[in-house]
UniProtKB/TrEMBL annotation:
The chain crosses the membrane at residues 12-31. One of its GO terms (cellular component) is plasma membrane. The keyword Hydrolase does not apply. InterPro entries: Beta-lactam/transpept, Beta-lactam/transpept-like, PBP_dimer_sf, PCN-bd_Tpept. It comes from Fervidobacterium thailandense. The keyword Secreted does not apply. One of its GO terms (molecular function) is peptidoglycan L,D-transpeptidase activity. Keywords: Membrane, Transferase, Transmembrane, Transmembrane helix. GO terms for biological process: cell wall organization. It comes from the Bacteria. Residues 221-538 form the Penicillin-binding protein transpeptidase domain. This is Peptidoglycan glycosyltransferase. Pfam families: Transpeptidase (PF00905).
Amino acid sequence: MKSRTKRADKRLYLPFLLYALMLAYVIYGLFKTQLLEREQHLTLLDHLLGRSIFEKGLRGSIYSIDGVKLAWSERVPVLSLKFLDEKTEGKIKKILAEEQIAVLKNTGEVQVAWEQAFLLRNEGFETKLREIRRSYGFVYHLVGNVNIDGDGISGLELVYNDILKGRAGLIYEIKSPGGRYRQSVIQTQPEDGLDLQTTIHFGLQKFISELLMTESTPSVAIVSEVKTGNILAMVSFPFPDFDMNGIDNVTWKKVLNDPLKPLLNRAISSTYPPGSIFKVVPAIAQMLYGNPAHVVQCNGIFQYRDSRGRITGRYKDWYLSGHGLVNLKKALRVSCNVYFYQVGLELGIDRMLRVAKALKLGEKTGVNLPGEVSGTLPDPEWKLKNIGERWYPGDTILYSIGQGFISLTPLQMLTLYNTIANRGVRTKPKLVVNEEIKEEPINLGLSDDAWETIIDGLTEVTTIPGDPANAGTASKAFKGFPIRVAGKTGTAQVGKHTTHAWFVGFAPAESPKYSVLVLVENGGSGGEVAAPLARKIFDYMLREGLFTENADGRQNKKEENK
């Protein structure tokens, strides 16, 4: 009986013992969790209730010399939805436009206005901020654009990417168990990228862009400071007519496949036969190695005779009636082909090549833009290697007027005329303020008087009126312009009935400050097409006060834009 009672008592205490053990285990577990493993569990809790966010500083802005933003970044609210059901669409239809909803359906996200972002948050939708890069289509060839990650992929955006891009900062956010974020801890402060100051004059760039659009044909116009090499404007038409940052794939492919190639910077990435604007090269060679006082009778056609006296080639002048007696200055003024045919043969290809190479033609100018090409400055060795033929006298004849196999970039030709304006000092073209001015004296051995002779001949191109036999080829275009311009027209043959129109010049002729180049592809005559466009550019620069004084010394006053 007693044994049964003892067994019953044991069964009675057993549950209490189990409860005591369980309680002890719980207490131990709490002790272990709260004290022994506290740091470990806090770390796990923070991982579950927190998140790390990398916030990138804004990309730096690119400015023009006249203080206008050419490219800049801003943060805008973006709505992202992976799935859009009928109920959700019904809510956002009250806030977003149909176009925005269409973009959201196609891409999964859409940019919204700040007011829309506020209304969306009230409806329970979360928006996030995203950096958007802005620019203008007509500065694309200079500024370039960025990719989806915000890194530069062309133009100055690419060249100065490391300077412009913002530095990322780390923000750690902790949320409550209910899901709301209650605390943000900035661990690393984001830094905005540095700004970039260019030499580009926004007003001039915009004016030239609109001017070339009126021609509706591929063309180039460049304006630079003669002494510094600063490029004030560089327009390659056509150019994209919209901001190239953030475009969709369909638009990108459309622009890429455009037969007019609006993404091509023709100023540095395309080469052309320079035609008559190249005649300054044999003119300089004539001053160095020939007879500067040489006079030629131009009857409109030059007949080349071989060593036996036989006529083996006839080469026409652009003015078939002929220019009469022509010296070096007049040859530049009227662009007499017959004069340069004969001078070229007398000098020979080697001497003309020596001058052209000394002037750095056929080499990249070194402008700080991607995509520059060197062009072709042919010689007998080049022709044998690439054409498989030896060099003929006819090649020398064509070379002397900038035709044949020679092909150079517009920026190379502008740099050549800057060198002439500087009396033999070459300056590298540049696009960024404070970039080192690289001057390189061209050791040709040409005297000051010889440089003056060349510049006087170029000045007569724009200042001497008269009949076609004697007038400067750009005299009509520059009639009445108050500043003396030294320049040269060119009409470069590219097909049986097709010519490129050129003009390049600098002003004031006596003390050069600015240079202007215009090229119109398949445009016709340089004097009739390119020179008038250059005159309009000079007119704009004069109106805006870019020239400090007129030829007679009177000060120009910059007009106030109100």
